[in-house]
Each structure stands twice: as C-alpha cells, then as structure tokens.
Amino acid sequence: MDSFILNNNRKGGSVKVTITPSQPKQLSHLPKRQPVDIGFSDLTYTVSEGRKKNGKQILKSVSGRLRSGELTAIMGPSGAGKSTLLNILTGYKTSGMNGSITINGQERNLSLFRKLSCYIMQDNQLHANLTVAEAMRVASNLKLGKDMSSKQKEEVVGEILDTLGLHEHRNTMTSSLSGGQKKRLSIALELVNNPPIMFFDEPTSGLDSSSCFQCISLLKSLAQGGRTIICTIHQPSARLFEMFDHLYTLAEGQCVYQGSTQQLVPFLSTLGLVCPSYHNPASFVIEVSCGEYGDNIKKCSKLNGNGILAGNEISNPGDGDVIKFIDSGVNLYQPYASKELKDESNGTADGMSRNVVIPVDLTASEKSPDNVTTALLDTGFIASPRHYPTSEITQFWIVLKRTLLFSRRDWTLMYLRLFAHILVGLLIGALYYDIGNDGAKVLSNLGFLFFNMLFLMYTSMTITILSFIKRTYNLMQQFNIQSYYLAITLSDIPFQAVFCVIYVSIVYFLTSQPPELFRFSMFLGACLLISFVAQSVGLVVGAAMNVQNGVFLAPVMSVPFLLFSGFFVSFDAIPIYVYCHFKSPMTTLEELDMVDADITLDIIALIVIFFVLRISAFVFLRWKLLSTR
Ligand SMILES: Nc1ncnc2c1ncn2[C@@H]1O[C@H](COP(=O)(O)OP(=O)(O)OP(=O)(O)O)[C@@H](O)[C@H]1O
C-alpha cells in the first residue's frame, strides 16, 4: 500500500490519498532473463555538416550508468541530444560516435546487445491489418522457439495481454486501438521474449494525463521486475516525475544532472538554484538547462563530471568545497517531497486509485537487481547467432502467412486492384472491340498491345512501391532479412498472376483475338512476365527510396522498356487510303523490324531482367537497413 499527500488549495488543506494496488500480477510464463546494467563513458557524437572541416558535436563526452530494476528518464530541453543519446545507447546509430559502452562491466557487443534489448520508438509501427491477438501470435511464433508448444505460447500471450489490460481488445484491429492502447500493444509485442533492457522514445507523447500515468506506471512495474527501463521524456508532471527512479538530464549535449529524482532539488540547491515551493522539479531543471537562471550548464556539467556517475566525490566549482553527492547507499539529503505531490493537475483520488502499479517480474528467480552477473552473456539465448530462436524457414513462413493475411485485408492491394483490372479490361475491350477479326485494323491491334503493356506495367509497379514501403518498415527490423525478403517477394506473385489472368481473359476475348489455346497461352505468358518484371522494378524502387521519389522515378525507369518495346515506329506517313499496305501480316512484322524476332529470346530476356531486379531490390533493402544505423 502506498500513500500520497495531495495538496488541495481550494480548501487550503491536504487530502490523504491512498493507492491500494489490486492483486499484483506477475508474468510467470515469460522466458527467464538476467538483469543487465549499462555503462557508458566519454560518449561523443559528431555529425558532418556540408563541407565544414570540423563536424557538429552533438554529444560532448557524456558518461553514465543505467541500472537494472530502475526506471530511468532522459530529460532535457529540445535539441539537447536526448534522442541522439538514446539512438546510440540502443545501437541504432553507430557511425560518428566515440566512447565506450559496457554491459554488466564488459565492452558491449552490438549484435548481442540488440538481442537483449528492444527499442520502442515514438511512432512505433504496429502490424497493420492484424488484430491484437494476431499480432501477438506473430510475435510469439517469431520470438519464442519451437521448444515451446502452441499452448504454452498462448499462455504467454494471454498473460501479457491480461497484465497490460489488452485482453478485452484482443479481437480489435491494431489500427483501431487508442493511442495509449497502441503504446501498450507495442510493449506487449516486445515483452513476448522478455528483453531485460527496454528503451522508449517519448512513450507519453500524444497521451492524455491519465494514459500518461498508466503508461509510466507500466514502465515502472517493468523496471520493478528487474529490467533496465530507459525512456526519453520532455517535461513530465510532478506526479509522473516522482515515479522515475533515475534521471539523466542533458543540456547542449552535456550531462547536467544524473542521479535519483529525489536528489535533484538538493543537488541544484547546492549551486544556489533553489526550486520554488510548489514548482515542478522537472520543469525547474529544464528551465535551468535552458539558461533561464543564468549560465549554469557548464557548472552543472562539471559538477557531474559531465556525466561521471554522481555518487562519487565531486568538487563544487563555486567555492572549491567538496560535496558528497550520493547516488546510492547512504542518502545525505532528505528526499525531495518524498510522496508529496506538487502538481495536482492530474491528481484525483479516483484517478490514482484506478491506476495501480503492477509488478511485472523479469523472472521469478532472478528478481534482485543487485544480482548482476555476466552470466547473461553465456546463456543460450545470447549464444544464438539468430535474432530470435526460430529458424530462417520458420521466419519465412511467419512473414509469408502474415503478408498474405495483410494483402487479403488491404483494400487498396486487393479490391481496388481487382476492380482496376476488371474495369480497364472492359474499357480496353470495348475500345478495341472485335479488332482481331479485321485485317484492316492492324494498327489498332498494335495500339491495343501497347496499352496492354502500359497498363500492366504501371499497375503492378506502383502498387508494389506503395505496399512494399508500407510493409517494409513494419517488419524489416524484426526478421532475418533473407527470410523476410523472400516471403514478401513471393507473397504478391499469386495475386498479381490472378489479376493478370482476369484482365487478359477479358481483353483477349472482347478484342476477338484468335481463339487458340497456344496463342492465348503465349499472350498470357508475355503479359504475366511483363507484370512480374514491372513488379520487380517496383521492388527495386521501393527498397531504394521513399514513396515520393519512388513514384517519380518508377515511370522514368520504365521508359527504356517502352522505348525498346518495338512499338515506336512511325506509320503516320503511310497513305492508308491508297492501298492496303498491311494486307499481309508479314508486312507488319517487316515494318516493325520483327521478322527475325525470336520469342524465346524475349522470354529469356524478361526472365533475366526479373531476377536481376529482384536481386537488386534485396541489395538495396540490405543497404538501406544497414545505412540507417
Ligand atoms: N544529422 C544531423 N545533422 C545536423 N544536426 C543534427 C543531426 N542530428 C541531430 N542534429 C542536431 O543535434 C541536436 C540534438 O538532436 P536530438 O534529436 O538528439 O535532440 P532532442 O533532445 O531529442 O530534441 P527534441 O526533444 O526536440 O526531440 C539538435 O540540435 C539537432 O538539430
């Protein structure tokens, strides 16, 4: 049981609010992990700006330690370098950085670290077109090895959904969830394999005060379970601020404070920066960092050894005295407003008793955050060369099934595309109706073939650019890239093939082309190949660039295909009314310089182009994935 004193200005008194946690829930089914401490020292991050010789230094030699069992907030004014520090600590950014990062005292191995941690970004993309339960099933199949039965996986999922209050929304589409529920689902998806380190970029952004409280309560309970929870946060209310165990404050790329949240105010007061009564200490430290109380950044930074863990002897730059600032162990200062709320905007008795902290244990047997060992590095979980304990083939099947479900439910991908193929088929069929029976309509036949090619190329190319980009960022980070690519490149082929068959059947018969199976098959085969090659162009463009550039560049890339399609021969000068120049089909072929054309060669060329483009798309995708780090 926990109690708070809530100031009540209207009545001039104080109301005692008691938080009574409901039956604490524990995640007993999760895989066991050991706690992890992160240390970093002398971290600098520099970016090059244009042709300037010296780059711009964003982080200036910051150091610190982030402990398991603690909820750490990285705070600071806008542009202070919070996201940059988070990106470096997560391993999301590696180039341009110097300094050392250690895990339980050992130098960080990035690929191992990525397996231990998760990074929930602000706009974390959820699996579109999936329900909460389906998204969780994908995550559990991917992250929990085949040693676990489906029933056990369901138990894990059920327990997480229950604990995070998502059980009643299990059949809701992820896109229909509220902002707070989406955040909780992002956490739930990551919790499946129980990572001991969890990073959050502004987890409370876009949430109302009650949801903010719920969200931070959840993070706090995750930390209480022995995890290392780190999040950036802009300016929490006093109520939220109190929930953090540890604070790391940045200003102009330097650490101006690190230590417990309770010791922030005493620390600042040693510099003559006295936080006014009833003032939110979180707001105060931001104001100090912004220079509203004079130039204190250098002083604070020096006092913190620019991030060398407070808790050691630190000299006060003001008078040379040595003060003891204890980060852990004996506390020399009275904790600031230990349970007294200075910001009552969010504090209603009702609200507080509704929102309870539910301890979510890292593991039942390894709860003690002090019990930090390097044994973690020896566990099977870490030793695995893969990101998750599922084979590449299993990952391929998971992505394939998920992508097929995605396509089936995607209105643009499925129904709009089907509608477009039928409508355009009927339109072209009506325009070139019965031309196949009329020898005088050779030119119309050529026009028909050309538009056929144009339509098939553009539809399959643009839809692939749009849908590929849409899907890629959702899942690319989570899967083995080969399995992922193979699944998404194969998944759309059947759909495109079916649409192409429907379209070709309509136009072939409406334009009265020869009703011979062989000719129909040849025509269909050529159309299918054109669609698949165009789809591959879409994949290359989608993998290499963003939607805006892709939508512009894809038509440009298709120009060579059109130029060399053989249709661009001028017939304008031919006086058709004088005599029938195209009486013999051979004349047409002669005019188009296609007498010696070998269809086998064309087919081989298209197949080669198809494979070259598919491989190029993979190379671009890989490059893009690596270059974002
Ligand atoms: N690639 C880059 N090139 C130039 N400057 C950069 C680059 N990346 C970051 N910066 C600068 O580094 C500083 C820190 O950026 P960062 O995004 O880490 O700040 P922040 O504290 O997270 O800010 P906010 O709270 O507004 O999100 C900013 O001044 C930003 O303009």
UniProtKB/TrEMBL annotation:
Record flagged with keyword Transmembrane = yes
| GO CC list | plasma membrane
Localization (cell): Membrane
Q: Which topology term describes how it sits in the membrane?
A: Multi-pass membrane protein
Q: Which CDD domains match?
A: ABCG_EPDR
* Keywords for this protein: ATP-binding, Membrane, Nucleotide-binding, Transmembrane, Transmembrane helix, Transport
- Per its record, how is this protein called by name? ABC transporter domain-containing protein
Recorded source organism is Diploptera punctata (Pacific beetle cockroach)
